[in-house]
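Worked example

This section walks through a single chain of length 179. The input is the sequence exactly as stored; nothing has been trimmed or padded.
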Amino acid sequence: MVQKLIKNLALFLIWSQTACTFNFELTSQRTALENQVLGSYKEIEDELILVSPVRGQSKEAAAKAPPSEAAKAKMNQDFNRDDIEELKNLGILGETFDGSLAFADQGPKADSIKTKLARDLIVEENSDRGRIWAHIIATNPNLSPKDLPNVRLTYGKMIRERSPPGHYFLTENKTWTKK
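Given that input, the structure is written out below as tokens.
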């Protein structure tokens, strides 16, 4: 009886090992800096939720928790996102390798209104990014101001990875390429 039980158990183990196979394929790994940048952005988004105005909230309650400079910058980015995406889709704006928004001028010639809008958005967006990068460095004990170039490069890489095809990027060689 015991031998039969052992034999059945052995057959079951062999069958279970051959019947269930799992293949895990790791497609990408984030660097520690990418995780810190993403974590800081998540904290800023969480702060925005906490300081968002609520219907019926008194002015005193709203004044007790003013948003940080980084949260204000993120709100401004969210406000400008649609215009920036439209101008990127037209090839008027693009991203640089070091995380800045720039005039790509790769699409059809823009009218003067779109050109002015693009210039204003570049100034605002790059200012907002600078405030967020400063916040990331200030709130991460592993980073110091000398890490700003690496934070910018990481941000630029993350933008490239999540951008749709058709957007323009300025490479380190100072040439515009289309994704």
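What to look for: Strands lie at 93-96, 101-103, 168-170, 176-178.
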